[in-house]
Amino acid sequence: MIDKSTILLIDVGGTNIRLGLMNGSDPVQQQFPQHVKRFPTRQFNDISAAIDHYLSDHPKYKIKQISISVATLVLGDQVTLTNYDWSFNTRDLVEKYNLQQIKVINDFTALALSLPLLSEQDLQAVSSGHSNPDSPIGLIGPGTGLGVSGLQKQSNIWHPIQGEGGHISIGANNPRELALFDILRSRHGHVSAERLLSGPSIEEVYQILCELDGKVVDALSADEISNTWIAASCEVCMEVMAIFCHWLGVVAGNLALTLGAKGGIYIGGGIVPKLGDAFLNSSFRESFNDHGCYSDYLSSIPVFIIHAEEPALLGAAIALGDEYNDLGIGYSI
Length: 333
Hints:
Layout: E1 6-12, E2 16-23, E3 34-40, H1 47-56, E4 63-70, E5 78-80, E6 87-89, H2 90-97, E7 101-106, H3 107-114, E8 123-127, E9 137-142, E10 146-154, E11 157-161, H4 175-188, H5 199-212, H6 222-231, H7 235-259, E12 265-267, H8 277-280, H9 284-289, H10 295-299, E13 303-306, H11 311-318, E14 329-332
Parallel strand pairs: 1-4, 4-7, 9-12, 12-13
Antiparallel strand pairs: 1-2, 2-3, 5-6, 7-14, 8-13, 9-10, 10-11
Helix pairs in contact: 3-11, 5-7, 6-7
């Protein structure tokens, strides 16, 4: 029987790692993670170093359960991040921290699990639409990579849809995109949605477009490119973000069609929530709807931007529930 002591919650991404605590004696629905801290992932050599650093500031807590959401496909005990040079073994963590329970799930699986508990204040509507509370929900989020997930309700329990939708193939729609895609294909061999819809891709697309036009390539970060776009002070940055918003709309619309996501599409990740009105005024919604004979179908689906504080930590806590025993990798002693 698991001793319901304090739970350590961890969300590991390619850019940041977030940690928080939760009292294991109370239902998740009655609480949210406490003492949440965020650190650059690069600050630590591995996940154990991050855990030790965090727990050194909270020595009074007895940790017997750890739940981790991680930005990669979770297939076995050895977990390796997709977009960062980190790897860890779940059984090693059980032994090192003398745990009674550990759970490891994909970060967008965790984010999906949190969606039913988010409030109206945690969400920003992109446009009008009517959600069916019992229909599937879609989730997409550009960040260091492109996360994709969803939820399907069965017997009043929301079950996450696990996959790697960020790596679907996409193809050019016009000569400009064809020139861009040819270069991406020559460099990477495969043009996935993530090649356009992530922080590193924003930077690479900017560099390619400058090269195609014979312009000087400035060393701009994704944040600098998006901020310059918002300020409308750089033509190349504006084109980069126009491509970004268009393709996010296309891929999100494809996700809505694939899942039948009449429950709504939710946008998370570290990029879109920072874009403000510039994103709302972009071509995203037009591209989302523009799917031929199903344009009217898609126009009725609401789209929300997630502004909640560290929702993946909440999802990691939910994943410890008995109804999710088969989710990800987990051990109980």
